[in-house]
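Sharing a chain and its predicted structure for anyone who wants a worked example. Both blocks are below, sequence first, tokens second.
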Amino acid sequence: MKNTSGITLGATILIAFIILLSAKPAGADDLVAARYLTVEPKRIELELDLRPPTPASIIVIQKLPSGTEIESSTPQVSKYDKKKGLAKFLLRQIDPGQTVITLQLKENVTKSDIHATIKYMDPASGKTTEIRIEP
């Protein structure tokens, strides 16, 4: 087949490869990224990865099944609505790097039972960001 556009197939592939290499992964510019390290029947570990300049405060809302009892947490839960299953953490003045939130529960949970929402304000732009994290 004759290429009438003036660009060879090899050049097209090379250009596509360069574009893919230069593309940033989703969330690459976010100041806060997160992932679940552990979701065991009675234990949840959520890791936050903070990049400078870190937000002045970060709100983490961990959704649990309604009625779930929390045995302990690190850091301590700021507010817990047991009826709604919403555990809120207010994190202030956190250094860049990794921070882990750990919940020890009295009841079993599964990955499909939980998710987290992270809210923060970019100190440079004032833009509020909300991220939903699934296990």
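Comments welcome. Helices lie at 9-22.
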